[in-house]
Design brief:
Layout lengths: L16 H15 L16 H10 L9 E2 L7 E3 L7 H10 L17 E3 L5 E5 L4 E6 L4 E3 L12 H7 L7 E5 L8 E6 L7 E7 L11 H4 L16 E2 L2 H4 L2 E8 L6 E10 L2 H7 L3 E9 L19 E5 L27 E5 L6 H4 L6 E6 L15 E5 L13 E5 L1
Antiparallel strand pairs: 1-5, 2-6, 3-4, 4-5, 7-8, 8-9, 9-10, 9-18, 11-12, 11-18, 12-13, 13-14, 14-15, 15-16, 16-17
Length: 404
């Protein structure tokens, strides 16, 4: 005997999922209603009363103001972070096995709902027609690449699928399987966009220096890589995202960056580190060392003209300490950074360096300086200015490592 005035906005506040389910179950027992096994008919979540009304009166009695065109429409999903009741809504839906956000309304999808993109209103399927409900009160987002329900393989994958019309921020990616997405920060604007954050390294801090094998070699996760907060961090993307391009950039300014490209695609960074093999085939594509974020004179941070870019570098034949778990004897030079820019082949002395004097000959993250015997030689972000040791180039602000 339930009725609705034509054109009314049916979204009573008391119809919360659990309460409504109890009410409907009680009513069903009183009236002797049953549900067919194997079908999701009237899995009540906010709008079950309409199905009872439709079943009792037939579709011909549905007010035309509530009947919605069944032609395909873009389906929107709930972004819970912006919705105070979105999480409860979705959790209750899962418990009641309700199929939310179905594409079409027919006899196979009674109880399904959607939020129409054009009208921004919830619509409920009674098995025959879409019934227009209350306005969608949640923050809505298209079901597109980068969401939890549709993660990209990487930030670059998201960037490409969305035609570059996307801003920097946290996105969902699933490099291994769409069943296991995780959130990561994507730089979608610097040097062509599509950059996946894999690590953050604090300035004037020793934790992530070249002696650290737990992070650089073994890929043990620390901190958070879905934001640019100032902290040491290494995320899951470090272990699983393949790449050709690498970028080191300031946490506070995207303008302060250094990016390069390799001629081949690497499976991930740990595979390089574990090989204890120098990779020196990167070519700079954007930025420079003296445009990065440091405390000092830019003149003292100008890179040498013969720098190469890559991994496990070093500007001389010094082999004093282990590097990211590689045994002592690895020629790490003065800085020996896991990721950075350096002279290659390593120069044995200044005379062999030729024009590479009074310039940065070795720089990177995951480094140190020489034998690392004093505090400022142990900092993880380090540079060696040939002719001045590290006296002018040891103080750096925090930076992030991105791949693409």
């Amino acid at each position: 005997g339930y009725t609705m005035a034509a054109g009314s906005d049916v979204c009573p506040r008391f119809l919360f999922p659990r309460l409504f389910y109890r009410l409907f179950a009680f009513h069903s027992r009183q009236q002797g209603y049953t549900m067919a096994a194997g079908r999701t008919v009237i899995h009540v979540l906010l709008f079950g009363f309409l199905a009872v009304a439709a079943a009792a009166t037939g579709s011909s009695s549905i007010p035309q103001s509530l009947v919605v065109d069944t032609s395909p429409t873009s389906v929107l999903t709930v972004e819970q972070a912006q919705s105070p009741c979105g999480e409860s809504f979705e959790n209750d839906a899962k418990k009641s096995n309700l199929t939310l956000f179905v594409e079409t309304c027919n006899s196979n999808s009674p109880g399904g709902m959607r939020c129409a993109k054009t009208s921004k209103r919830f619509e409920y399927c009674n098995g025959h027609h879409w019934l227009s409900m209350c306005p969608c009160s949640y923050h809505l987002q298209e079901k597109q690449a980068g969401t939890r329900v549709n993660p990209g393989r990487s930030c670059n994958d998201i960037f490409i699928k969305r035609d570059g019309r996307v801003k920097s921020g946290p996105y969902w990616i699933a490099p291994i399987s769409s069943a296991y997405p995780f959130l990561v920060f994507c730089d979608m604007e610097t040097a062509g966009g599509g950059w996946t954050l894999v690590a953050k390294v604090k300035g004037n801090d020793p934790l992530m220096n070249r002696l650290n094998a737990a992070q650089w070699r073994d890929g043990r996760l620390i901190g958070h890589t879905h934001n640019l907060n100032d902290e040491n961090a290494l995320g899951l993307a470090y272990n699983v995202v393949s790449f050709r391009d690498v970028m080191i950039r300031s946490l506070t300014s995207s303008q302060k960056h250094l990016a390069w490209r390799h001629p081949v695609t690497f499976r991930n960074i740990p595979s390089i580190v574990k090989s204890c093999t120098r990779v020196a085939n990167g070519v700079k594509i954007s930025g420079s060392i003296n445009q990065l974020d440091y405390k000092g004179n830019p003149v003292h941070h100008k890179g040498c003209t013969e720098l190469v870019y890559g991994f496990m570098g070093g500007d001389s034949t010094h082999a004093i300490t282990p590097v990211a778990g590689c045994p002592k004897g690895y020629k790490h030079g003065y800085v020996g950074a896991v990721i950075g820019a350096f002279l290659d082949p390593p120069s044995g002395d200044r005379s062999k360096a030729g024009q590479n004097v009074n310039c940065i000959a070795d720089f990177g993250v995951g480094g140190g300086y020489h034998d690392m015997n004093v505090a400022n030689e142990q900092y993880a972000i380090m540079a060696h200015r040939w002719g001045n040791s590290n006296s002018l180039t040891y103080s750096w602000n925090s930076h992030a490592v991105f791949v693409r």
